[in-house]
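Tokens for chain A. Residues wanted.
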């Protein structure tokens, strides 16, 4: 018994040796069985883990977000500035079109359409009537002159003279209107000349000193019909400021009228696009872009 006590005292005085890991032990420890007396340890919450984690990465993430938001705002500001410049340029272009082509609205359709233009059949019929009148007058004059030379009896020569006077009276417009309402060949020719003259005066008024239709050619994006090649000659004359002097036939005036009608359609579309651009600029707060067209002096 004394020997056992001495061994126990010797073991108590010796230092406690650290446990030695033996080779072949598993990397992950085997979970110990839970006894009834042991209490389960509380799991660490995410908030506690976050509190324990260093705060420097969070600060870095916040700065990165600020830099990203600042870059996005700068990009948005740059795109907004580019859109504003483009909108201002487009509105300026539309204002110039409206200013240069506003005389299209002064077009007199009835004057340029020439609805009362005498057709070729009426003109040919009047020419036959004129030729018959001239032939009858010449026959009556020949009979009268033959009577003066004694070639025909005097009473026939007198009848020829009376017929000649009556035929001449029928050629006077005031007498002619008594027995017929048809215009004479001279009246039809004068009507054509008058209509051409009035149409050329109206075209000269529309063209002005700067020309009209060649400036309206820039509205071709709003009406592709203005690009038709049949209008090219008219555009060259308008650009040279000699269009009104070159309109000598009805076909030329009618072609000019067709171009004005197409230009009027394009003008209405340009005007609509201008007002829509104005409204959009006002909605976005671009007051300088939404400026009204300058008043003409």
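Reply:
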């Amino acid at each position: 018994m004394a020997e056992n006590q001495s061994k126990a005292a010797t073991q108590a005085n010796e230092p406690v040796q650290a446990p030695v890991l033996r080779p072949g032990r598993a990397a992950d420890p085997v979970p110990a069985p839970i006894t009834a007396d042991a209490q389960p340890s509380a799991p660490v919450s995410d908030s506690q883990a976050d509190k324990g984690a260093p705060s420097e990465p969070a600060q870095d993430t916040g700065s990165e977000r600020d830099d990203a938001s600042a870059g996005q705002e700068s990009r948005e500001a740059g795109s907004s500035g580019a859109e504003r410049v483009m909108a201002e340029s487009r509105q300026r272009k539309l204002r110039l079109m409206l200013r240069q082509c506003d005389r299209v609205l002064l077009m007199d359709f009835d004057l340029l359409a020439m609805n009362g233009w005498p057709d070729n059949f009426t003109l040919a019929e009047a020419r036959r009537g004129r030729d018959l009148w001239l032939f009858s007058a010449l026959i009556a004059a020949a009979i009268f002159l033959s009577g003066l030379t004694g070639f025909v009896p005097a009473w026939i020569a007198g009848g020829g003279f009376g017929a000649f006077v009556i035929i001449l009276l029928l050629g006077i417009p005031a007498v002619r209107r008594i027995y017929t309402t048809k215009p004479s060949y001279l009246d039809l020719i004068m009507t054509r000349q008058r209509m051409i003259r009035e149409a050329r005066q109206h075209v000269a008024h529309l063209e002005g000193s700067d020309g009209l239709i060649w400036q309206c050619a820039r509205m071709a994006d709003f009406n592709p019909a203005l690009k038709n090649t049949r209008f090219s000659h008219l555009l060259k004359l308008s650009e040279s400021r000699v269009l009104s002097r070159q309109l000598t036939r009805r076909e030329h005036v009618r072609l000019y009228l067709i171009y004005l009608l197409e230009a009027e359609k394009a003008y209405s579309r340009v005007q609509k696009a201008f007002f829509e651009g104005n409204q959009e600029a006002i909605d976005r707060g671009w007051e300088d872009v939404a400026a009204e067209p300058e008043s003409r002096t």
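The CA atoms of residues 10 and 16 lie 12 Å apart. The first helix runs from residue 2 to 13.
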